[in-house]
User: Fold this.
Amino acid sequence: MSTERLNATFAALADPTRRAILARLASGEVSVNDLAKPFAMSQPAISKHLKVLERAGLIAREVQGRIHMCRLDARPLHAGAEWIAHYTRFWNERLDALQSALDAESAAPPADRRSP
Assistant:
């Protein structure tokens, strides 16, 4: 995944309203009107959130007459999860090395320990 696409994904996920919209879409396709109902904001405000999600590739919109239906596209989420997993492994390895060094230091006899 490109850096721009990954940036767009994380930017879209940064907003709690957009995360709530994605959570709702995880249950299935929903009309824009139904997506807007639980939020205390105008239809244009919801539309702006949906456009951010669309640009990030997180949702797809289909027009059925006058009704706009939205569905989740989780592919960008997988790329974000892979990016996070890379750094999770990185930090786990560093923390394991630190733990090993601390274990070795605490197991050494007091005479072998250096003074600070």
Q: What stands out?
A: The chain is about 60% helix and 10% strand. Residues 68 and 101 are 58 Å apart (CA to CA). The chain has a mean pLDDT of 89. Residues 1-107 form a domain with the Arc Repressor Mutant, subunit A fold (CATH 1.10.10.10).
